[in-house]
TrEMBL record, chains A, B, C:
<dbReference type="InterPro" id="IPR029062">
    <property type="entry name" value="Class_I_gatase-like"/>
</dbReference>
<dbReference type="InterPro" id="IPR013529">
    <property type="entry name" value="Glyco_hydro_42_N"/>
</dbReference>
<dbReference type="InterPro" id="IPR003476">
    <property type="entry name" value="Glyco_hydro_42"/>
</dbReference>
<dbReference type="Pfam" id="PF02449">
    <property type="entry name" value="Glyco_hydro_42"/>
</dbReference>
<comment type="similarity">
    <text>Belongs to the glycosyl hydrolase 42 family.</text>
</comment>
<keyword id="KW-0862">Zinc</keyword>
<protein>
    <recommendedName>
        <fullName>Beta-galactosidase</fullName>
        <ecNumber>3.2.1.23</ecNumber>
    </recommendedName>
</protein>
<dbReference type="InterPro" id="IPR017853">
    <property type="entry name" value="GH"/>
</dbReference>
<keyword id="KW-0479">Metal-binding</keyword>
<feature type="domain" description="Beta-galactosidase trimerisation">
    <location>
        <begin position="390"/>
        <end position="597"/>
    </location>
</feature>
<keyword id="KW-0378">Hydrolase</keyword>
<dbReference type="InterPro" id="IPR013738">
    <property type="entry name" value="Beta_galactosidase_Trimer"/>
</dbReference>
<feature type="domain" description="Glycoside hydrolase family 42 N-terminal">
    <location>
        <begin position="10"/>
        <end position="376"/>
    </location>
</feature>
<keyword id="KW-0326">Glycosidase</keyword>
<feature type="domain" description="Beta-galactosidase C-terminal">
    <location>
        <begin position="608"/>
        <end position="663"/>
    </location>
</feature>
<dbReference type="Pfam" id="PF08533">
    <property type="entry name" value="Glyco_hydro_42C"/>
</dbReference>
<dbReference type="Pfam" id="PF08532">
    <property type="entry name" value="Glyco_hydro_42M"/>
</dbReference>
Length: 668, 668, 668
């Protein structure tokens, strides 16, 4: 695995005509060196129960191997065959709107023993058949696995059983979850009501956490099966996805990526993003940061991203290159397209692949050929890049779930992700390298700054670890609503922000929705005249303590006395508390205030600094705009894509949607 | 009951920690003299069938009594325990979208014999236990009872039985409801189709009326049970609510407040309203007027209103006082907050009480202390205030239901309430004191003006009583669509507006939606240049009769010949007919034209004139704005809140969101 | 049938009081010479199973006959009686949202043997009873029959059976529909999944076509029954309707009008349209063109259109006349209102008839009297008018269904109809007479121009016939997305637009959504500066062939090299290809470029040229605006409505919403 991979998903099964040799020839022209196969083809592999057909698998494996193209085998379980649904209707998932009907993928009950039995069988049969094939470099478990909003009887009973184990005394559960409210007490396990219709956020969040746990269990179970067959050098990965808003928008609420990734030997992901004038690289960067974080900063596989995709995604000239190298700069060691050829029937006809429906060499394919050539040429330089980021953002599925139970005002979206993206995008746009973490522990000391947005539900232990991080010299930007409730989504009855008051030295007992409100500075913090106060607004009071100062207050006839941003010394560190959702420039300024560093460029000119396996420092420069951009290099460097040397301070020009990669002269 | 009450709902059951003595101490500081308990705590009272637990009830009753705080006991029936739903799934209500799942409150079938049996038992057990406790001043039946869109088999069968009794000859029902249309005839009771899927507005409205009747019956049944236990001096009330649009917006369609109130000894209500910059007092006033009307003008209890409430409701300094005295000015003798402490789990965590989650003395609590002190000091002056309004608005559940079957154009809201609020708000803003009535009868003669908005469905008798009221010297402003259909929602085949043509002397057979249309005056009525014509527009023709004059016509190329507003003499009275939804200023002018009176002030400066039990005249002055306001007093008076005397004609100044109460010098 | 008919739907059953003689007298005054009865009155005819009541039918037939008014009998089957639903719940249709509850009309399962048995019985009983009555001129089968989204077990099983017959080898179905995708293969008929939840557009479109086929079968079955009873001179018709957007908007997706019309002796239709300021005549014209096309240009019946209709439709003075003569100009030989009297109960109370609820002579009725008089006077001149249009638009239910599976961007509407209306309206507004066709064959040679919008799914044979039409000298305007997929909705893997590339000499493999894009001309085609590029945008490349020229390209930084409109010579004809949705003026210019003709007037002044049965040429002139309009006559003519002669070149004036009909002097 010590090379850059350039890949596509390949479905011989979906072809309207014989294409294999033509396709491989076009792949080789484009530098494609890996294909992913099999992941949604159960019905072709096992057209009837117990009848197997390896025709497509075998011919693709053999042909790829002959051509030196590697293969990733996906277990075919994420789309079940019609005969299984027909024979065993109970394998269809039941959601709050009832049992689902056959048709879509990802509508099976992943805790159904019947489903698991059939799934195990097809995985074993397939792996038995292919396990010794030399083309195979690794396996993908299932695809974009989630719990599919499963509230079926199995899920429910297992959930109740898990609570029974956690709560030998049922009264403690009533206490933790506050079930007395609206007469929701449960004093007998057999009276447990349907968790999906509860109005109790504590119970509802516990159920959601359990549903995520079942995804973790399911992937671990598949991983265990695959491990029985795979060769030692073959990897096991999974294709994680993100909260979807027509593209990869934010943290996935239906899986705990960090927990589920433990079953993998390398993390994998799919990242889809706006394109054309809306191409910003933000999703590539945050998606990469999350996936890199799953295995302590290790490189990862982009198992799917768009080639042509939807009509609104058809890339402008240059964008496909820009995207590919943006993935690499984030730490990807594979960029693979979904998918090779556009599909002629069914649902994703307009989610186009690298080839259009006519299989001819279209402009996107022609641009891919330049990427494949660059990947091959620069594999040694660009494979296994290492990030050395000084800033991390703490995310939490638990906080997301709990916060989204209580969306401010009229919000309808996944508000946690709206907030996450506001913070993430601010730092991305300011060229501040960011890692994503899901815990604060001893390893966190390596970060100069940790940003904590909307950590709405957390146990005392995590909040105390944040305090300890600060005390030991760390710097934290703590966002509104953090610390508000405990791990049971019970609001703390101490003064808010609960345990974090210790480091932040600020408190509040009231909050409002911002309406016609501004900010004014009462410190050295510079504020723009129209600085937005969005979404939520806590009426903060700094502790009566010289170690905390108010940086800004609200400009408002009724709330003018309250603090909006405070800064506290705590031990050897510092804690900024932000009582509202700030605009991106202010977030940037606050993080820069903590880190003491300011980048020379900002969006749309994006720079990423990394270290390669030879120990050389590289700087990627991306122009995310339709107009040419200029920048001066801080030191002498060699441009590795087009070639040529640049002196320190020399100004270089990036074409619209252009990319440069500079390797700094060692010792310079 | 001869004092002002200042109260809170109190849930010892929901407390995350021991608080009782602390809470009582803070209550006493704030002048809280009544708490409401028990109303949603069935599962705590009866954690398993037949097992009872009075621990919370007893300790709260005893502690309150020791501190001199009164207690209202709510029957706990509006949120059922999980074990009841688990044991008897049939108690869950069935609506048009199916049988509801356990979780929310208010989802039981209030006509289910099983539910009624269990509900009766817990009421009797509770009352048996507490009935002699001296802290108790009264009982609240259930809470915000409605029919919960019940279309279950019991409701349906009882409805059909009621029709069988009403229609010994089924053919008459077919005739009254017009069931021949689209082959909907029913010639055999056993073929009666599901009423919830009917497309027949007559049948649908009859079913809705029956559903409301079942709420009336249910409350009367609970009242009967409570009456067996209560002491003679204890009251029976209910907490009515209103059509909800994120706050109390209009007349409640799912209860007939007037009919249901017959089971009560005193009316009660909850009123929630916009706050901060959107605080207007309108909901406090109309909600009070409705509730006052339920018992012929008697004082009522505000059993719930917001202290802090939602984030967007957190009151500006001064607003909590403004709200409290506005309730009193409307005739309330109790102002009670929902609720004492903010809840730490479940659904209403962000519906904050007087205390925040940290139980400390926040700014809202501190303001409440001033109210409690004023209530105590002024109880004699402000208790049992009497209104002497000269204008009444006639409302009708029947008309609302029928009209909303036929919403004009693209309207999606409860249009009847939109219209009601337009009329009500116009008069409120103009400081015209208004009562709400649900019938016109001999007692109505005391009103100088009756306003009749959208009385879409009414029997001949009511329309004739309106005519008689006018004939006898009353003045009426009759709104569009009044009189259009009969009590079966059968459109009248006489000329429109049916029976009201007699008094209004106007008719029409066509109507349109207003589009690019204005008004022009053809009388002494002053019209603004941009007077709006909203929602609906009847093409009126005045009778060929000298006793009717056209006040205004439509400005429109096609409809310019038609009258828009007419004025008719009828007997000793006068009838204005308004063929469209007018803007608030024009509505005000029309009512002032009838009453002959114009108030000196208008919104945001609101004045309310009342008489107290000593017979003194009081004037409340409310500044519903963020800027100071001035007014001159018509006569010498004493300001009772801050103290001090004012001479006739002297100008006084109200602070932003300020309130003054003037007691006029008798004889002055 | 050699006369003009002026009619109303008449429901003696719905009357709140005895009206028959009064009504007939008012009808005679208004020139009403035909009434349609019985079509929704099953429950009145058969109040209980096997009990029949002909009272209303008999008295209406007799009374009408005495007065010389003709009667159309509708079979009463489109609204079933409550007893049938009660006795046989399985007759209620099952849709994707479950089995429907009784209430609305048109919710029966038209493939249920039980329903068909009862329907056949009531049709036979009724026809047996009335068949010899001399008042009857014809029969209407059912009403607005559609498949009602039927996915019930009968529909599903019959569909699967039809596929079994079509596909003796199930593997061919998998291949045609591309079922391998997402593991949707079906290798055993008994595993066939619910067609309504499929995500496969090929399977979904095949099911929709089958549902439409069942409507065709149902009407043919009713026609067969009626034919057993009807007299030779009596007609059989059906009342087709259109895609509904609050009015008749476009092609009906739930019936194949052309196939279903084969069971009729004369086509019938209902057309409802915006009115007042929004009255344009467009729906009258396109609805007429579709209905005229069902029987190769023959005259048709407008069985329903609005008299007063909804409040927003109440006609301005003059509009009812304008509408009536617009129908006649399109080829109608009957204009009938739905309905005579406004209904006093139920659902359509505000869908008013010619009379309001008070049955008096309102302004709309008074205007109808002038129409009735003109129809009677001019029957000989205006009956059986013939169109001689040179332009046709090709429509396709198959293409609509398939295209709507893949709506561009965020589109939610029936996009096919949006496109159809853009093309149709452009030609209507430019006074280009248009026919609607659903195939191209030898008879198509009579058209100078055929317009082909969005022919997304079509077999090779149809595309080849289009090529042959052009080759033989025809001219075609081919719209974007035409030819893209085959009859199985499998995208072609040849270069796009597939077979049409042969005549259009243009191809593309990429397409985008238009965003900030314009057009620039690279030919003699004139373009406005702000010419819109809507909905979709194909990146076209003209073949390297002198016989094709690029007329316009896109103005866009990335796509400027691609063609937007091309023009090709092919054989003796010409093909314009339009790669995007153009604005109406550009569509008009392209059609005029092909036809070589430009009309002297344009909307709102609409002219229609026709030939009457005497062979005289007539020109209808319609002023669809609120301001008077002028035009010069091309030749001497006689105005037949008001009377009087006009010389060639003389200018005449049309009143607002006015209509003139000129008969040209033969030989002039």
């Amino acid at each position: 695995m010590s090379q850059l991979y350039y890949g596509v998903a390949y479905y011989d099964e979906y072809m309207p005509e014989e294409r294999l040799e033509n396709d491989i020839s076009m792949m080789l022209d484009a530098g494609i060196n890996v294909v992913r196969i099999a992941e949604s083809t159960w019905s072709t592999l096992e057209p009837q129960e117990g009848e197997y057909n390896f025709w497509h698998i075998d011919r693709v494996l053999d042909a790829m191997h002959r051509s030196g193209i590697h293969v990733i085998i996906g277990t075919p379980t994420y789309a079940i065959p019609a005969w299984l649904a027909s024979k065993h209707p109970e394998v269809m998932v039941t959601t709050a709107s009832g049992q689902q009907k056959y048709g879509r993928r990802q509508i099976m009950d992943i805790v159904s023993p019947v489903f698991l039995r059939y799934a195990e069988n097809i995985i074993r049969v397939l792996l038995e058949h292919v396990q010794h094939h030399p083309a195979i470099i690794g396996y993908q478990l299932d695809n974009e696995t989630k719990h599919y909003d499963n509230v079926g009887p199995q899920m429910r009973q297992q959930f109740i059983r898990s609570l029974q184990q956690r709560y030998p005394d049922i009264r403690q559960m009533n206490q933790d979850f506050g079930l007395d409210y609206w007469s929701n007490r449960i004093d007998n396990w057999q009276d447990f009501p349907p968790p999906e219709s509860t109005i109790n956020a504590s119970l509802g969040s516990a159920f959601a956490a359990f549903q995520r746990q079942k995804v973790t269990d399911y992937l671990a179970w598949q991983s265990g099966i695959v491990a029985e067959y795979k060769q030692p050098e073959q990897f096991i990965t999974h294709n994680f996805d993100f909260e979807w808003r027509g593209y990869s928008y934010g943290i996935q609420p239906r899986v705990d990526h960090f927990a589920a990734a433990e079953a993998l030997t390398i993390a994998g992901v799919d990242i889809y993003h706006p394109s054309q004038q809306q191409l910003t690289g933000r999703e590539i960067a945050f998606g990469g940061a999350v996936t890199r974080g799953l295995k302590q900063g290790a490189n990862y596989l982009v198992l799917e991203t768009q080639a042509q995709g939807f009509a609104q995604w058809t890339p402008f000239p240059g964008q496909l290159r820009l995207q590919a190298f943006s993935h690499i700069a984030s730490g990807a060691k594979m960029v693979a397209y979904w998918h090779w050829h556009s599909i002629h029937n069914s649902f994703e006809t307009y989610w186009k692949g690298l080839l259009s429906h006519d299989f001819s060499a279209n402009p996107t394919y022609l641009e891919a050929k330049t990427i494949g050539a660059d990947f091959a040429r620069l594999s040694d330089t660009l494979d296994s890049l290492r990030q050395e980021n000084e800033v991390a953002i703490l995310i939490s599925n638990q906080a997301m779930e709990a916060f989204n139970w209580f969306k401010p005002g009229d919000a309808q979206t996944n508000v946690y992700n709206d907030i996450f993206r506001r913070f993430y995008d601010a730092l991305y746009d300011a060229n501040i390298g960011v890692d994503i973490i899901n815990d604060v522990d001893q390893r966190s000391a390596r970060y100069r700054v940790i940003v904590v947005p909307a950590l709405y539900a957390a146990d005392d232990a995590l909040l105390n670890r944040i305090n300890r991080y600060i005390e030991a010299g760390g710097q934290a930007l703590i966002g509104f609503k953090s610390g508000f409730s405990d791990q049971h989504v019970k609001v703390r009855s101490e003064r808010q922000p609960g345990v974090l008051n210790q480091s932040c030295r600020v408190s509040y007992s009231q909050f409002v929705l911002p309406q016609q409100v501004g900010l004014y500075s009462c410190s050295d913090l510079q504020l723009d005249p129209d600085e937005p106060v969005d979404l939520w607004m806590e009426l903060l009071t700094a502790d009566d303590d010289a170690r905390v100062q108010v940086l800004a207050r609200y400009q408002h006839p009724a709330w003018g006395e309250y603090a909006a941003i405070t800064e506290a010394e705590y031990g050897a560190g510092k804690a900024l508390y932000l009582g509202f959702l700030a605009g991106k420039p202010l977030i940037t300024r606050l993080v820069e205030r903590l880190s003491g560093k300011t980048a020379a460029q900002q969006f749309p000119l994006i720079t990423r600094q990394v270290v390669n396996k030879a120990g050389n420092r590289l700087m990627f420069c991306f122009n995310y705009s339709a107009t040419a951009a200029r920048l001066s290099l801080p030191q002498a460097a060699e441009e590795v894509l087009q070639g040529g040397s640049v002196n320190a301070g020399e100004e270089v020009c990036l074409a619209p949607w252009g990319v440069h990669i500079y390797q700094f002269t060692p010792g310079d």
